Amino acid sequence: MSQILISPQNEKEREIRIRFKNEFPFFAHNCLKIGHKEGGLIDFRLNKAQLYLHNIAEKQLAEKGFVKILCLKGRQQGISTYVEGRFFWKVIHNKGLHAFILTHRGDATDHIFEMAQKYYKYLPDDLKPFVERHNADEFLFSQLASGYKVGTASAGDVGRSNTIQLFHGSEVAHWKCTQEIVSGVMQGITKNSEQFLESTANGVGNYFYEQWRLAERGETDFIPVFIPFHWQDEYAEEITSDFTLDADEIEIRDLFGLNNNQMVFRRKKIKEIGINLFHQEYPFTPTEAFQATQVGGYIPSEVAIKAMKNTDAIKYGPLIIGVDPARNEGGGDRTAIVCRQGRVAFNLHSFKTNDTMHIVGIVHQMIKELNPAAVCTS
């Protein structure tokens, strides 16, 4: 990246300008304005979720020379605000950078670009680059040969002809024409780029979910980053004098380290939108977020986490081998084999194979070596 030159008036200004160029949190707090949820404008000070994501991005950039992040999050946690601010910062401080933001709906696209317009409008005058073109979806900074553009994922050819160094896919789990977009605009992203693909969950079986699974297994360069909803300070409510928690709520509060104000928010929101939609929009864990739309089809995440934290269980009774063979070999599905005695599961094997007889051979060998009481398959 070819960086713009800093022309300070004095040493103090030089130090500040260097920090503006090198430290996004410092630049954001002093130079960018964002809309407040209650109305008006405030300085852009990174919240817990944004700072967490920023530190991961900077670490990957330092180690790999690129940023590739899949971010699963709850509603309105400021992830888009962070990425748009980061890209705006990059574009006005470097030459030859082109940022492209792709959202799931037209109104979301408009909102994203309004955010960029605020960034530019309230930017200190001595930091504003010359704008050659500024229309409904694009800034073109001709003297820097850089640009900032937005689009909507409603057609497969959107952004196809662009060369992109900074790419943000917003609400990817809700995209239309996903395969066309992947084979189009995403093929124009340069090698040493920054890519943020973020979304609230939208069930399983879509592109975002599949990419998340691949990233979790370390099969791509993307880092999976989960942002739990309760990191947001505003997701809390005042406690009334008659408020009490039932046994299940106490268990959830203690398991995830919440306070009672957050539990009041949780209870009110569940009454408003229902438990399944709450798990999807305000998740505690990735599993909870993805599986929320499949009613009755999964073990609640709080139960699974409690089981994983239980170190008191001991092996007892007959040995059982469970086998879950892959159903879609071409779609990233994996075969899993695990042993169980009583409440203890162990010796998990998870692998890909195009040969079902390979699975049979592995299970046959385990039967010979372990002499299980039963083998169960799904």
Could you spell the SSE succession in H and E letters?
A: EHHEEHEHEEHEEEEHEHEHHHHHEEEHE
Q: Any idea what the radius of gyration is?
A: 24 Å
Domain count: the total is: 3
| The level-1 CATH class of the largest domain | Alpha Beta
Unreliable spans are: 1-5
Number of helices: 13
Please report which band the strand proportion falls in: under 5%, 5-15%, 15-25%, 25-35%, 35-45% or over 45%: 15-25%
Structure class: alpha/beta
What would CATH call the architecture of the largest domain? 3-Layer(aba) Sandwich
Intertermini distance? 52 Å
Provide keyphrases for this structure.
globular; 13 helices; Rossmann fold; 3 domains; 4-stranded mixed sheet; 38% helix; alpha/beta; disordered N terminus; 22% strand; 378 residues
Q: Would you kindly provide a written description of the structure presented here, covering whatever features stand out?
A:
With 378 residues, this protein is an alpha/beta fold. The chain contains 13 helices and 16 strands. The model is unreliable at 1-5 (pLDDT under 50). The chain has an eight-stranded mixed sheet with strand order 7-8-9-6-10-11-4-12, sandwiched between helices. The termini are far apart. It folds into three domains: 2-227, P-loop containing nucleotide triphosphate hydrolases (Rossmann fold), CATH 3.40.50; 231-309, no CATH class; 319-377.
Brief overview:
The protein is an alpha/beta fold and 378 residues long. The protein folds into 3 domains: 2-227, P-loop containing nucleotide triphosphate hydrolases (Rossmann fold), CATH 3.40.50.300; 231-309, no CATH class; 319-377. It contains 13 helices and 16 strands.
